[in-house]
């Protein structure tokens, strides 16, 4: 079973990578870019086939390793 | 209109970040992790309200800046 985890900085936390992308898009002539946030996406291939168990395991992975929950939020998609 | 871009290393391209995550998950006692790939997710807030135009603009952003199309693939979601 495949899981996809999105890890984004929480809103309110300064995102210098996103700001750099926004400025670069402006320099390249792209107009109307009101905001950019950059995060991580992690695709995990699991041996587990039970959706509920897989979701519990991946959530634990996020809490322990993948996200810094002080400044980052995460979401888990399975499929 | 919001756009979300996923940028992943193409399959076959070595992903040291993903490998590091896989090893770290193993060290933490998570079993059954068969593979991990790590990529970027970029959320862009656009002034454009037309879906077709926004998709064309974001695709151009990917080609010019957001993805290195030699080694990375990207996908665009609008909504």
TrEMBL record, chains A, B:
Belongs to the PurS family. Pathway: Purine metabolism; IMP biosynthesis via de novo pathway; 5-amino-1-(5-phospho-D-ribosyl)imidazole from N(2)-formyl-N(1)-(5-phospho-D-ribosyl)glycinamide: step 1/2. GO terms for molecular function: ATP binding; phosphoribosylformylglycinamidine synthase activity. HAMAP family: PurS. It comes from Roseovarius tolerans. The gene is purS. Part of the phosphoribosylformylglycinamidine synthase complex involved in the purines biosynthetic pathway. Catalyzes the ATP-dependent conversion of formylglycinamide ribonucleotide (FGAR) and glutamine to yield formylglycinamidine ribonucleotide (FGAM) and glutamate. The FGAM synthase complex is composed of three subunits. PurQ produces an ammonia molecule by converting glutamine to glutamate. PurL transfers the ammonia molecule to FGAR to form FGAM in an ATP-dependent manner. InterPro entries: PurS, PurS-like_sf. The keyword Nucleotide-binding applies. Its main location: cytoplasm. It catalyses: N(2)-formyl-N(1)-(5-phospho-beta-D-ribosyl)glycinamide + L-glutamine + ATP + H2O = 2-formamido-N(1)-(5-O-phospho-beta-D-ribosyl)acetamidine + L-glutamate + ADP + phosphate + H(+). This is Phosphoribosylformylglycinamidine synthase subunit PurS. One of its GO terms (biological process) is 'de novo' IMP biosynthetic process. It is found in: Cytoplasm. Keywords: ATP-binding, Cytoplasm, Ligase, Nucleotide-binding, Purine biosynthesis. It is an enzyme of class 6 (ligase). Pfam families: PurS. The keyword Cytoplasm applies. Part of the FGAM synthase complex composed of 1 PurL, 1 PurQ and 2 PurS subunits. One of its GO terms (cellular component) is cytoplasm.
């Amino acid at each position: 079973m495949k899981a996809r985890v999105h890890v984004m900085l929480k809103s309110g936390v300064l995102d210098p990578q996103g700001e750099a992308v926004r400025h670069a898009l402006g320099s390249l002539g792209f107009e109307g870019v009101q905001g950019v946030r950059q995060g991580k996406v992690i695709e995990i291939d699991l041996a587990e086939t039970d959706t509920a168990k897989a979701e519990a395991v991946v959530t634990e992975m996020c809490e322990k390793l993948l996200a810094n929950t002080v400044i980052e939020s995460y979401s888990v998609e399975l499929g």
